[in-house]
Amino acid sequence: MRSILKKSKLAIIIPTCDRAVAIESLLCNSAWQLKKYGIDLIIYDSSSNDETEALITNFHADGCDNVYYHRYEGKFDGFSLDHKLVQAYKDYVDDYDYIWLCRDGLIVTIDNCYKELFSAMNQKCDCIFVDASFRNGGETSFKKYVNCVDVFKDHAIRAITLGTLIFSKKMIKKIIKEHPITENNYSLWQMAVPFEYFATNSFVAISIINQVFSYNILGTSNSFWNANASALKQWSYYWFHVLNKLPPVYDDFKKDIFQINMFDFNPFSPSSLLRFRANGGLDLKLLFEHKVVLKKL
Q1: Which helix (H) or strand (E) holds 141?
Q2: In Å, what is the CA distance from 56 to each residue of 50, 63, 129, 145, 154?
Q3: Half-sphere exposure (CA, 13 Å, Cβ side) for 259?
Q4: Mind giving me the DSSP string for 31-90?
Q5: pTM of the model
Q6: 66, 35 in Cβ contact below 8 A?
Q7: Beta-carbon-side half-sphere exposure of residue 211 (alpha carbons within 13 Å)
Q8: CB atoms < 10 A from the CB of 140, how many?
Q9: Which strand (E) or helix (H) includes residue 143?
Q10: Around Cβ 295, how many Cβ atoms within 10 Å?
């Protein structure tokens, strides 16, 4: 039997570029488990060589037929991944009931929460927020939301991590049509558009906090923002601008969300700022450029 399911309801799409080592680690640690649950894994690649594609060929040869390779040659402006993410949704939205876009720095491990995950999909919810219990003080939970402010307060910061959002086919089609990439959501489209959607539509969202994923050690050593020295710009100007442009229904709570202080991510901590500086992304010119915003963050 290919899986315990009659058909594949869910695809996990991994945008990547020139990170064959990270992808190999990810596949070795998650591909066979996902096959067991009938979940397809699509490597959405824009590498400058064919190393990543060769990995997928080898996995197919070994019988892991739920792993697919997709070559992306579309728009990239050197700063934002938004266009690549949107195109990934467009390419596969008609093939699956749910799409989970996830970065290659995470390894999906759902043995302990697959019942909750399939329950959420069977309830035909619009959006599923997922996160690892180790990032939440060991907490495990399964919670339903129908109020946009409640889901914003609980999940706005969580949504900045590529890998914590699963969209239904219905929701992602509507988002792509009604909330394209604009100056109001640029660079954080994936985070902003669900809250734009929730503010004007009735919805059901479910959150699952459990052993959903672990870190891919080979995928975190060379992060995109560190490599291109753009982290301060991303988490000062763009974070403030995009969050501030979200619908007024969230206004009373935005000041709390401005302060990013997660278990594994605090862009304005001393250690993060020193890392920005080491990679050429922090100097007096940048501090002066963003000084008004930095005071609010």
Answers
A1: strand 141-145
A2: 10, 11, 28, 38, 37
A3: 5
A4: HHHHHHTT-EEEEEE--SSSHHHHHHHHHHHTT-TTEEEEE--S---SS--HHHHHHHHH
A5: 0.93
A6: yes
A7: 5
A8: 14
A9: strand 141-145
A10: 7
Contact 25, 216 (CB under 8 A): yes
Convert the pLDDT of each residue in 83-93 to its tens digit. Answer: 999 999 999 99
Predicted local distance difference test score (pLDDT) of residue 263: 84
Instruction: Among 7-21, 37-51, 99-113, name the one with the lowest average pLDDT.
Output: 7-21
| Burial label, 174 (beta-carbon count in 10 A; 0-12, 13-18, 19+) | middle
Helix, strand or coil for residue 101?
strand
> How many other C-beta atoms lie within 10 A of the C-beta of residue 112?
12
Tokens of 250: 């969230």
CB distance 252 to 258 below 8 Å: no
| C-alpha count within 13 angstroms, C-beta hemisphere, residue 95 | 15
Q: d(Cα 89, Cα 181) in Å, to the nearest integer?
A: 13
Burial class (CB in 10 A: 0-12, 13-18, 19+), 239: buried
Tens digits of residue pLDDT in 97-140: 999 999 999 999 999 999 999 999 999 999 999 999 999 999 99
Using alpha carbons only, how large is the chain's radius of gyration in Å? Answer: 19
